[in-house]
Amino acid sequence: QSALTQPASVSGSPGQSITISCTGTSGDFGTFRYVSWYQQHPGKAPKLLIYDVTKRPSGVSNRFSGSKSGYTASLTISGLQAEDEADYYCSSYTITDTDVVFGGGTKLTVL
Amino acid sequence: QVRLQESGPGLVKPSETLSLNCTVSGDSISGYYWSWIRQPPGKSLEWIGYIYYSGGTNYGPSLERRVTISLDTSKNQFSLSIQSVTAADTAVYFCARHLLPQNYYYGMDVWGQGTTVTVSS
After folding, report:
1. Which residues in chain A have their CB less than 8 angstroms from residue B104's CB?
2. Which residue, among A70, A76, A9, has the nearest Cα to A37 in the 3D structure?
3. A82 by DSSP, 3-state: which?
4. Which of A70, A77, A92, B98 sits at a 20 to 30 Å CA gap from A47?
């Protein structure tokens, strides 16, 4: 099962903006229409931040935003805060649009 | 407020069957897709499979020959079974609900806290 490719780590200072990329390949990910993003703090369950590429579930801060170009999706966090330090995972579906796939995860460090 | 709680043995012997339950409280299991996801120590998330409230299932290719997901609507509960486990199945196991009714595309918005399962003799 092919994974989505994410950078292993990113960092930024409080108040700055950062972007995390998530890349799939056309052969593996069909339409790549349904991209979600999760935040996971150590020892905790993942939290859904973004679904359907750009949408935020109720209660998620508007500092989190999603976008996509071709087979690369991106999560942008603006106005970085210390509490944003966590692991971030993208997710989509395989070419048949039936199987869920996660990215390898990106560790965000707030300097 | 919907809550999910995983339960089951924390230690399983190699070659035996891993069995976990996920109890849903605060809402009915009806109308949604429900997934199991696992995370080996220090690694990424791995989707295991999902079940629809009507009983239809779909499993990821890495485990599909060893895994069964089932549900019990009378108990508002769904379950995971993985046969012939090895040390590679050691992980934190999460259950989760997909965001929108009748649809599995839009991510998972409600998660259990996770339960650690170690495979060791």
Report:
1. 100
2. A76
3. helix
4. A70
- Which of B60, B49, B119, B120 has its CA nearest to residue B90? B119
Kindly list the distances between the CA atom of residue A18 and the CA atoms of A81, B68, B89, in Å, as whole numbers in the listed order: 11, 40, 34
Of B60, B107, B113, the CB nearest to A48: B107
Is the Cβ–Cβ distance between B17 and B9 less than 8 Å?
no
Q: How far apart are CA A53 and CA A106, in angstroms?
A: 17
Phi and psi at residue A14, in whole multiples of 5°? Answer: -55, 135
**Contact by Cβ (8 Å): B87, B120:** yes
Q: Identify the residue among A32, A33, A48 best suited for mutation to test binding to B, counting B beta carbons within 10 A and taking the highest.
A: A48
Q: What's the rounded mean pLDDT across residues B77-101?
A: 97
Contact status, residue B54 vs residue B44, Cβ threshold 8 Å: no
**Using the 8-state DSSP alphabet, how is residue A103 labeled?**
B
Residues in chain B: 121
Q: What residues contact B43, with CB distance under 8 A and at least 6 apart? A: none
Residues whose CB is less than 8 angstroms from the CB of residue A12 and which lie 6 or more positions away in sequence, other chains included: A18, A77, A80, A108, A109, A110, A111
Residue A63 contacts residue A14 (beta carbons within 8 Å): no
CA of B16: how far to CAs of A12, B73, B79, B88, in Å?
46, 27, 16, 13
Q: What is the pLDDT of residues B18-70, one digit of tens each?
A: 999 999 999 999 999 999 999 999 999 999 999 999 999 999 989 999 999 99
Distance from CA of A14 to the nearest CA of B (A): 26
Cα separation, A88 vs A107, in Å, equals: 6
